[in-house]
């Protein structure tokens, strides 16, 4: 069994194939964290790690210093007001205005499988999986609150998934002001905190800093997980590399406001917490009602960041993404946005489709500008009716013309937004998120629809579903181009206004759940101004997310490296665009743009009708490469070999078949140099005893040579040059 309980020592042991997570009950009531790390076959003596026999002792032995106990005990779930002055997970206000809450152990249950979280994305267990769940029940009888701490163990996937369920067991309302989902207390090992940071156009750059005394956080209060921070944090030991060092990681399965915080205390312990950001949050919990907090995925690695990445990749491919496209080759698509922006009509799109078909491209995606009076970005969001001046005969006629050229058809929506200049806003101005008496701030000339309101959710769904029912549409790009301001709902009562941000995200989840239920064969790609809502929560509904609006091949190196730290390459929306690049103005070789985009879903963001004959031939060759190597991108094991973000010269990654039969290695020389010799690249994940031939040559290498000696990559003249090397076992 993955989970056991020793009644004699009050010890829970949660085992995956290579890790153990230990929880102890101190003084028969306090739930404490004992250990998370390499798998322990024998836990004799582990309970001592709770330090209950050291000063200040447990309260039953030393009630006079109970607050000192609270300030150093390694809680599994910390609360406010009882002496633990570190970052808390739970704050509940009573009708009398008090915020003291003390949860004590009252029981537990261990069972096979993994429950779903109603209305929320969640990691799932398949029938026959080695998944078990522990639910520890604790209560504060004084205020009438029950909390269920849930731990689901995925033995083969090497992960522990945590969440919390609150229930009001009293006779009056409770006001939840803070409810985080996970807490872990560790002894400091001179940790560094690793996060993913950035901005629009430079999302998810890997950032590392020493963990000094005090609090270090990554967070978002923007209404989405955001471009700027990512709902992820890891504590790593000094000198951690791809292959060495210890990593303690948390990843939040949620798409809204979040807090990921690490705090080093006076006692040289470190607390790591994660959950919904408490700023602006308050939830009214009525008698008998429950509140389910989202999940946190916990991963430990003693073999560096590479093993952590493999754990997340395997878990998300096997237990989070539900789309039928998960193990299917995605169609190579071309999107017209950077080709035409708003300036297009049906004839222009068909012209693009014809040239795309000749190059082997399989789908045309019609982006923004096809509806209402949407000839620029300050109008018509919310008016999801086809502009027949651009598309004579309507959408079905447009789709038939594109399909007549042999391409599938996809379409862009931004369903969560409304333009002030729209029929929808003129009819329902109260449907926009706003504070009465204030003029709401615009961003990109638009407001956010209040998806906490069921009638707004129903309207949005009717619009999207109606369009999809009207024509043969295979793909939807679901965009969200602004973040929250003026947070207020014209429908929620005053005491419920603090629920708006979370209810909004629940509305997004409901919309997408309804969409994939009615249209199960739809390929849904999420987007939020690029990568502004690239998080595990959205992958529960879509198998891929647009990684960044910045398609420059060099900028994408750091963006895609940080993204691949947590997500499989097959999830990463990556396309080839025109040069000079529309975001940064850089010129890069067409081949390098293709090689970088091949480490993702692969497609094009350009006007193919304006390419030269040579460039069109390169498109054909790139599409052939995609079909040749995509099975590795889709199902292979990802290895990071070199990081341009670290060495400032070159980038290199590898995807190897799980059975070690082949591997594709991509090398990008970002900057050339003077009097520089060839570089030695050491591969990973191969069979030491096998021989491998480099495709396109007669050169054969042993697996040992490739992994320990390396293969030479010749330095070429010029910046931004690249190559893909394919090694096949002979």
From TrEMBL:
**InterPro entries with a match to the protein in the record:** Aldolase_TIM (IPR013785), Alpga-gal_N_sf (IPR038417), Alpha-glycosidase_related (IPR050985), GH (IPR017853), Glyco_hydro_27/36_CS (IPR000111), Glyco_hydro_36 (IPR002252), Glyco_hydro_36_C (IPR031705), Glyco_hydro_36_N (IPR031704)
Protein's GO biological process: carbohydrate catabolic process
- GO molecular function of the protein, one example? alpha-galactosidase activity
Chain ranges of the Glycosyl hydrolase family 36 N-terminal domain: 30-286
> Which residues does the annotation say bind substrate?
200, 367-368, 444, 477-481, 527, 549
List the PROSITE patterns hit by this protein, alphabetically.
ALPHA_GALACTOSIDASE
The reaction(s) catalysed by this protein are: Hydrolysis of terminal, non-reducing alpha-D-galactose residues in alpha-D-galactosides, including galactose oligosaccharides, galactomannans and galactolipids
Q: Which residues form the active site?
A: 479 (nucleophile), 549 (proton donor)
Enumerate the UniProt keywords alphabetically.
Glycosidase, Hydrolase
What EC number(s) does this enzyme carry? 3.2.1.22
Q: Which residues form the Glycosyl hydrolase family 36 C-terminal domain?
A: 651-727
Q: Which family does it belong to?
A: Belongs to the glycosyl hydrolase.
Instruction: Report what the protein is called.
Output: Alpha-galactosidase
Its lineage opens with: Bacteria, Bacillati, Bacillota, Clostridia, Lachnospirales
């Amino acid at each position: 069994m993955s989970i056991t309980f020793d009644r004699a020592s009050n010890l829970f042991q949660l085992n995956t194939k290579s890790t153990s997570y230990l929880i102890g009950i101190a003084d028969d009531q306090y739930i404490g964290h004992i250990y998370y790390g390499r798998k322990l076959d024998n836990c004799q003596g582990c309970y001592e790690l709770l330090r209950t026999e050291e000063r200040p002792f447990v309260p039953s032995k030393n009630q006079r210093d109970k607050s000192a106990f609270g300030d150093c005990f390694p809680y599994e779930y910390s609360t406010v007001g009882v002496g633990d002055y570190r970052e808390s997970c739970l704050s509940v206000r009573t009708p009398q205005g008090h915020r003291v809450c003390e949860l004590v152990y009252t029981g537990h249950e261990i069972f096979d499988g993994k429950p779903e979280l109603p209305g929320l994305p969640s990691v799932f267990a398949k029938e026959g999986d080695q998944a078990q769940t522990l639910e520890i029940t604790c209560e504060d009888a004084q205020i009438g609150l029950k909390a269920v701490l849930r731990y689901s163990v995925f033995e083969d996937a090497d992960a522990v998934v945590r969440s919390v369920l609150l229930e009001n067991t009293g006779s009056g309302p409770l006001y939840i002001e803070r409810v985080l989902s996970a807490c872990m207390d560790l002894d400091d090992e001179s940790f560094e905190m690793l996060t993913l940071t950035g901005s629009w156009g430079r999302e998810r750059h890997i950032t590392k800093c020493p963990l000094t005394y005090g609090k270090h956080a990554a967070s978002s209060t923007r209404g989405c997980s955001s471009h700027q921070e990512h709902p992820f944090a890891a504590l790593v030991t000094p000198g951690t590399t791809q292959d060495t060092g210890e990593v303690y990681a948390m990843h939040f399965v949620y798409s809204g406001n979040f807090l990921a915080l690490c705090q080093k205390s006076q006692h040289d312990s470190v607390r790591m917490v994660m959950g919904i950001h408490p700023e602006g949050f308050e939830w009214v919990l009525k008698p008998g009602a429950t509140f389910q907090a989202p999940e946190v995925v916990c991963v430990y690695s003693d073999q560096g960041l590479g093993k952590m990445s493999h754990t997340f990749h395997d878990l998300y491919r096997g237990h989070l993404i539900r789309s039928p496209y998960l193990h299917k080759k995605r169609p190579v698509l071309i999107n017209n946005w950077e080709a035409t922006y708003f300036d297009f009509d049906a004839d222009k799109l068909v012209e693009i489709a014809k040239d795309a078909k000749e190059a082997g491209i399989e789908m045309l995606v019609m982006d923004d500008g096809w509806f209402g009076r949407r000839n620029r970005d300050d109008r018509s969001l919310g008016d999801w009716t086809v502009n027949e001046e651009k598309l004579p005969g309507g959408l079905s006629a447009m789709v038939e013309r594109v399909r007549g050229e042999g391409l599938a058809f996809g379409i862009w929506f931004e369903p969560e937004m409304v333009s002030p200049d729209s029929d929808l806003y003129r009819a329902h101005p109260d449907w926009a998120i706003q504070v009465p008496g204030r003029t709401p701030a615009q961003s990109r000339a638009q407001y956010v629809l209040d998806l906490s309101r069921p009638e707004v959710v129903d309207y949005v769904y009717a619009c999207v579903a109606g369009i999809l029912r009207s024509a043969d549409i295979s793909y939807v790009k679901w965009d969200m181009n602004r973040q929250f301001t003026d947070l207020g709902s014209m429908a929620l009562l005053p005491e419920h206004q603090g629920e708006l941000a979370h209810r909004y995200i629940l509305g997004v989840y409901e919309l997408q759940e309804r969409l994939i239920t009615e249209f199960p064969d739809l390929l849904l790609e999420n987007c939020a101004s690029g990568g502004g809502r690239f998080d595990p929560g959205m992958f529960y509904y879509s198998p891929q997310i647009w990684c960044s609006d910045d398609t420059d091949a060099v900028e994408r190196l750091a963006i895609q490296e940080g993204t691949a730290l947590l997500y499989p390459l097959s999830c990463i929306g990556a396309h080839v665009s025109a040069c000079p690049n529309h975001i940064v103005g850089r010129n890069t070789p067409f081949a390098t743009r293709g090689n970088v985009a091949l480490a993702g879903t692969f497609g094009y963001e350009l006007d193919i009708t304006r390419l030269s004959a040579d460039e069109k031939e390169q498109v054909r060759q790139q599409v052939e490469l995609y079909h040749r190597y995509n099975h590795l991108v889709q199902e292979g094991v990802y290895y990071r070999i070199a990081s341009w973000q670290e060495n400032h010269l070159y980038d290199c990654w590898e995807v190897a078949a799980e059975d070690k039969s082949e591997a594709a290695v991509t090398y990008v020389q970002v900057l050339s140099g003077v009097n520089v010799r060839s570089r030695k690249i050491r591969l990973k994940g191969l069979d030491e005893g096998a021989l491998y031939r480099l495709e396109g040559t007669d050169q054969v290498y042993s697996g040992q040579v490739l992994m320990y000696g390396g293969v030479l990559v010749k330095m070429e003249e010029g910046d931004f040059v690249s190559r893909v090397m394919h090694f096949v076992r002979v």
